[in-house]
Write a structure and sequence with these properties.
Layout: E1 3-6, E2 9-12, E3 19-22, H1 23-42, E4 52-55, E5 61-64, H2 67-73, H3 79-95, H4 99-118, H5 123-144, E6 146-147, H6 153-164, H7 173-187, E7 188-190, E8 196-198, E9 203-209, E10 217-220, E11 222-224, E12 237-245, H8 265-288, E13 293-296, H9 302-310, E14 314-316, H10 321-331, E15 335-336, E16 348-355, E17 360-365, E18 373-379, H11 382-405, E19 407-410, H12 414-427, H13 434-445, H14 447-455, H15 460-472, E20 478-481, E21 486-489, E22 496-498, H16 499-517, E23 521-524, H17 550-554
Helix pairs in contact: 1-3, 1-4, 2-3, 3-4, 3-16, 4-13, 4-16, 5-12, 5-13, 5-16, 6-7, 6-11, 7-11, 8-9, 12-13, 12-15, 14-15
C-alpha cells in the first residue's frame, strides 16, 4: 500500500493487497527472472546440447531441445520472464531458428548490465550503449556475411544440416537436407526484380510412425492419412476429377429443435424414404458433375456412402482443414461449401493412389495450376517423429531464408567472436559511459562459443582464448568444431548459419534486455512473490531463480 501525506494525514492510493518494488530491488528482480529463463535453455545450445523432457499437467510428454518449444510449454507466471519468452517467439516467427541463441544472449546482456549497475552506471547509459552496439553488430554481420547462390546445393544443404545438428534429425541429416533442398527447388522462383522468392506454403510436412527416419521421402503432391468410407469403393483412381467439399453429405438438419410424431409404420417409411431421397440426390449431383473422388471435410452419412460406392466414387470423410487447403493447391481445385451449387469447374484433376502398407492416400495433381510437394517424415515412435518434424521445420525455414536473403555466416561461434572483437574496437571511439556498455555487449556475445564448448564437454575458457587469438590474426571464419574440439574455418567445414537469423537474434536480445533495464518500479495488484522466499531465491521470491515458473513450468522438475 502506497501513501502520501497531505496536511498531516496519509492519502492511500493503492489497495491493501497491492505490492510495490522500486529502484534497485525492481531491477534485480527483473534481471533474475529474465536470467532464469535464459539459464533454462542454455544447455540445449549447439550440436552437443542436451534435451529437455516436458511433462504437461495432463501427463503429455514432449522431448526436445528446441528453445521456443521448451519456453512455450513452461508454465511461466512472472511478467518479466514472459517478456523473454516473447524473444524466442519473435525469433521463431521472423527467422525460424536461433531461438536458444537469442534468449541466451538476452540473459547474458542482463547479467553484464547488472555488473554495470553495481558500478553506479545508470540504466539509461547502458541502454544507449546497447543500442549503439546492436546497430553496429548488425552492420558488421552484413560485412562478414557470404553471398549465397540459389543453385549452390552444397551451401544450402550445409545451412539445413547445421540447423538439424544436435536435434532429433541429426543422424539422418544428409538424407533430410537432400530432401529439403529438392523441396525448396520446386517452390523457388526468380522474381522480375532479380530476387529469389520461396513459397513454403507449397511444402507440407506429414509424419508417420513405425518406420525409420532414414525411410523419409519427398513426394510430389499431397498425403492424406485417411481410409475410404466404404469397402466397395475403389482405392485408387488415375486421372481423377476430384471434388473438395466443406459440407456434410448428410440429411440437412433444421435450425431449431424439431419433434416428429409418427403414428403408423407407413409414416415412418415415408420419413425414411424422404431422407433417402435427399441423400440420393446429393450423390447423384456429385456423379453428374463428373467427380471421381470426394475429399469431404465433414461427415458422410452411411446411406450416402452406399450411393457413392454404387456410382464407383471414392470418398474420404473428416479430412483435416489443412489437408483440404493443401489439396486445393495440389489439384488446382476449388473448395466447395454448397454442394448444390458445385459444378465441373470446381473440380481438380490428378491421380489418387492408395498405399495399403502405409495406409495413406498419395494425391498428385496433373492440372496446369497444380503445385505442391510433401515431406513424409518417418520415425519409430511419436516422440521421435515429432522431434524430427520440429528439426526439419527449422531447417526448412533457415534454408529458405538463406535463399531469399542471399547471405550466410560461418557457425560454431565464429561470428560472435568476430563481432565481439569489432565491437571492442568500436568502443574505443564511443564517448562516455556508453563505451562500457558496448564492451559489455561484446562480452555477452562471447557467451555463445563458451556455451558451445561447455555443452560439448570442452574447456570454455581455453576455447575462448584460442578463438580470440585466431580472430586477432584476422581469421574471420575461425570457430569451434565441437566434434573435433578444434578451432578451424567453420564455413569450409560446412557449418553455416543464415545471416538474417543472426541479425534478428541480436535485435531481439538487445531490445528485450533494454526493455527490462528500463523498468525501475513494479506495482502489482497482488503478491509479487511467486514462490519461495528471499533466502531461497532471487529478489521478489523468485525461488532460486526459477520458483516464479513453478519449478520449470509446473512440470514436476521433469527437466
Amino acid at each position: 500500500m502506497a501513501e502520501r501525506r497531505m496536511q498531516g494525514q496519509p492519502m492511500i492510493i493503492m489497495g491493501d493487497d497491492a505490492q510495490r518494488m522500486k529502484d534497485k530491488d525492481a531491477q534485480e528482480h527483473n534481471i533474475s527472472a529474465a536470467r532464469a529463463v535464459s539459464d533454462s535453455v542454455r544447455t540445449t545450445l549447439g550440436p552437443k546440447g542436451m534435451d529437455k523432457m516436458l511433462v504437461s499437467s495432463t501427463g503429455d510428454v514432449t522431448i526436445t531441445n528446441d528453445g521456443v518449444t521448451i519456453l512455450q510449454e513452461m508454465d511461466i507466471d512472472d511478467p518479466t520472464a514472459e517478456m523473454i519468452v516473447e524473444v524466442a517467439e519473435t525469433q521463431e516467427d521472423e527467422a525460424g531458428d536461433g531461438t536458444t541463441t537469442a534468449v541466451a544472449v538476452a540473459g547474458e546482456l542482463l547479467k553484464e548490465a547488472q555488473d554495470l549497475l553495481e558500478q553506479d552506471i545508470h540504466a539509461t547509459a547502458i541502454i544507449q550503449g546497447y543500442n549503439l552496439a546492436s546497430e553496429k553488430a548488425r552492420e558488421e554481420v552484413d560485412e562478414v556475411s557470404i553471398d549465397v547462390d540459389p543453385d549452390d546445393e552444397s551451401l544450402v544443404r550445409s545451412v539445413a544440416e547445421t540447423s538439424m545438428t544436435g536435434k532429433g534429425a541429426e543422424l539422418d541429416k544428409d538424407l533430410l537436407s537432400d530432401l529439403i533442398y529438392q523441396a525448396l527447388q520446386t517452390v523457388t522462383i526468380d522474381a522480375e526484380d532479380g530476387s529469389t522468392v520461396v513459397d513454403l506454403n507449397d511444402i507440407e510436412l506429414e509424419t508417420q510412425t513405425g518406420r525409420q527416419v532414414s525411410e523419409s521421402e519427398l513426394l510430389s503432391g499431397a498425403v492424406v492419412d485417411k481410409d475410404p468410407v466404404h469397402e466397395n469403393m475403389p482405392d485408387s483412381v488415375e486421372d481423377a476429377d476430384v471434388l473438395l467439399l466443406n459440407e456434410a453429405i448428410e440429411v440437412e438438419e433444421t435450425e431449431t429443435d424439431t419433434t416428429v410424431s409418427v403414428d403408423s409404420p407407413d409414416q415412418l417409411q415415408q420419413f425414411l424414404e424422404q431422407e433417402e431421397k435427399q441423400l440420393r440426390e446429393k450423390a447423384d449431383h456429385i456423379a453428374e458433375i463428373g467427380a471421381d473422388v470426394v475429399f469431404c471435410q465433414k461427415g458422410i452419412d452411411d446411406m450416402a456412402q452406399h450411393f457413392l460406392a454404387k456410382e464407383g466414387i471414392l470418398a474420404v470423410r473428416r479430412s483435416r482443414k489443412g489437408d483440404i487447403e493443401f489439396l486445393q493447391d495440389v489439384l488446382g481445385a476449388s473448395i466447395v461449401t454448397d454442394l448444390e451449387s458445385a459444378t465441373t469447374e470446381d473440380l481438380g484433376t490428378g491421380s489418387v493412389t492408395r498405399d495399403d502398407a502405409d495406409e495413406l492416400f498419395y494425391v498428385e495433381g496433373n492440372g496446369d495450376g497444380a503445385h505442391g510437394v510433401t515431406l513424409l517424415l518417418r520415425g519409430a515412435t511419436d516422440h521421435v517423429v515429432d522431434e524430427v518434424k520440429r528439426s526439419v521445420t527449422d531447417a526448412l525455414d533457415v534454408a529458405s531464408q538463406s535463399l531469399t536473403d542471399g547471405r550466410v555466416l560461418p557457425g560454431g561461434g565464429a561470428i560472435e567472436v568476430e563481432l565481439a572483437d569489432r565491437l571492442r574496437s568500436y568502443a574505443d571511439g564511443v564517448e562516455g559511459r556508453e563505451a562500457l556498455a558496448v564492451e559489455s555487449f561484446a562480452d555477452a556475445l562471447e557467451l555463445v562459443p563458451r556455451v558451445l564448448a561447455s555443452n560439448a564437454g570442452l574447456d570454455s575458457i581455453d576455447t575462448l582464448v584460442e578463438l580470440r587469438a585466431a580472430h586477432e590474426r584476422d581469421e574471420e571464419r575461425a570457430g569451434l568444431n565441437v566434434f573435433s574440439g578444434d578451432i578451424e574455418d567453420t564455413f569450409d567445414a560446412g557449418i553455416a548459419e543464415p545471416a538474417h537469423a543472426k541479425e534478428q537474434a541480436l535485435s531481439s536480445a538487445s531490445e528485450a534486455a533494454n526493455l527490462v533495464l528500463k523498468i525501475d518500479d513494479i506495482i502489482s495488484a497482488g503478491d509479487l512473490s511467486t514462490g519461495g522466499d528471499e533466502e531461497e531465491g532471487g529478489p521478489g521470491g523468485m525461488g532460486g531463480g526459477m520458483g516464479g515458473m513453478g519449478g520449470m513450468g509446473g512440470m514436476g522438475g521433469a527437466m
